[in-house]
Amino acid sequence: MASLFSDSNSSGYRLLVAVALCTALMWLDHRTDWLGQPRWLVSFTTAPAHYIANIPPSLGGWVTDQAQTVGDLQSDNDRLRRQLLILQQKTQRLAVLEAENVRLRELLNSSARVSGRVTVAEIVAIEPDPNRHELLLNRGTLENVQAGQAVLDARGLIGQVIETGPMTSRVLLITDATHALSVQVNRNGVRSILAGTGHPDRLQLLYMPDTADVKEGDLLVSTGLGGRYPAGYPVAEVTEIRPEPGQAFLTVQARPVANIDRASHVLLVETDAPVSVEVPDVDG
Amino acid sequence: MSMDNRSSGTPVIILTLYVAAVLEVMPLPAMVEFMRPEFLTLVLVYWVIALPHRVGVAWGLMAGLFQDVLTGSLLGQHALALSVLAYLAQLAHKRMRVFPPIQQSVVIFLMAGVTVTVSYIVQDASGRAHVPPWLMLSSAVTSAILWRPVFNSLRWLRRRFLVR
User: Fold this and answer.
1) Is B130 within the bounds of a domain?
2) Any idea what the Cα angle at residue B71 is, between residues B121 and A50, rounded to 5°?
3) Which of A114, A125, A185, B105 could lock onto B144 through a cystine, CB 3.0 to 4.6 A?
4) What is the C-alpha separation between B142 and B128, in angstroms, rounded?
5) Domain count, chain B
6) Cα(B22)–Cα(A56) distance, rounded to whole angstroms?
7) How many angstroms separate the CA atoms of B78 and B41, rounded?
8) Which tens digits make up the pLDDT trace of A204-249?
């Protein structure tokens, strides 16, 4: 349509239609998951935008890499070799422990729940909106990434995949205010819920009774309850415990152990081995 | 009037909007993250003012939906904001054309403010707004500052590629 005089009346109607459409879409998107498929299709065009936007920073990283001196590289190499040796030694012990663990579980008549296989993904973008703590990874459904997969870095849990495109996937971080997961204190197994606060390095333990045995410096590990995260991965460290006079629960602050704001590569835990939990035979 | 009013140059409009969308997700240092200008707002307002008979609410809607998928936000959040913006720009396009640059920037500040506010209200309603709203409004200020350079480069593009 190319009328010479733009008719503000007709654009008013168009705005009305657009507002109605948007409202319907927002309602659908918020209440249902019917819009996953359209989103997945549009992701074919949005993924290149993310890759293009990531060129300047990765170019900067490449330049820094190129500018490293031989001495730097050698000392890096030495350090990594030492680290590798230490880690290899630790894995040796791990194999024995794992075997022992499986035997003990067999004795207890519960199934082994090991899903240790991981794939590496690169972070291509960080959500610019400060209200949402999300990352974008360079792997999508074409590489078998599925919504719900747990995401880790070398030190601990980072978050979970919430949306997948063909070439990218979106990760909700554990620090997002809408995120919570089940954790336990590594020292004594006290369970609680660890919720994000919307602050990049602060998490909060919910509903800890005043008498709960939790100390500053305690490591919180995932319990695997809820079936979303694998059990036993470190999540956070308790930084502050404050009893609130007149309140039934403690205010417990924690800090994620993962390098959430510094990681450039993350690990996706593969979920192809379904976690099955057998009900132990009580009578036996 | 024997004016040749076939429209042309649609790819240029789409391309500039795409570039604006890329700039919306370009990584920035955390310190200036919240001051990121509303590039899509600027580009959309330019095209509405330049070609009000072609670019309007529908373009705002499509660009907004694209931004929603791009940033993974609630589908319709930015679409609503940019539709409203396109409508306002269409109402104001005759006045905008005769305004001196400073006054144009003030109007742009208001328009970007509307975009940010609408999208903030939607985000708040869906329970995902935690940053104080005035912090989000600082991006309207940077948008107003960037308006003239964006305007000049888009005008050059429009003349160069005969978009009409």
Assistant:
1) yes
2) 160
3) B105
4) 24
5) 1
6) 12
7) 10
8) 999 999 888 999 999 999 988 888 888 888 999 999 999 988 888 9
User: Is residue B3 one of the residues assigned to a domain?
Assistant: no
Helix segments in A67-114, DSSP class H: 70-108
Domain that holds residue B72: 10-160
- Percentage of chain A exceeding pLDDT 90: 39
Question: Residue A40: which residues within 8 A CB-CB, separation 6 or more?
Answer: A141, A164, A165, A166
Chain A CB within 8 Å of residue B74 CB: yes
Tell me which residues of chain A have a pLDDT lower than 70. 1-9, 109-116, 271-284
Give the alpha-carbon dihedral of A210, A215, A220, A223, to 10 degrees: -50
Quick check: B37 contacting A, CB < 8 Å?
no
Contact residues on chain B for A178, CB-CB shorter than 8 A: 127-128
Contact flag A131-B131 (C-beta cutoff 8 Å): yes
Q: Could you read off the pLDDT of A90-120 as tens digits, one per residue?
A: 888 888 888 888 778 777 765 545 456 788 8
Query: Does any CB of chain A come closer than 8 Å to the CB of residue B77?
Result: yes
pLDDT (mean) for B98-108 = 93
First to last CA, chain A: 79
Taking contacts as CB-CB distances below 8 angstroms, the residues of chain A near B77 are 26
Closest CA to A150 of A162, A132, A135, A167: A162
Residue B148 placed within a domain: yes
Average pLDDT value for chain B: 90
- Within an 8 Å CB–CB cutoff, is residue A130 touching chain B? yes
For domain A37-61+117-274, the question of CATH label 2.40.10.340 is answered with yes
Interface contact flag, A22 B28, Cβ < 8 Å? no
Q: In chain A, where are the structural domains located? A: 37-61+117-274
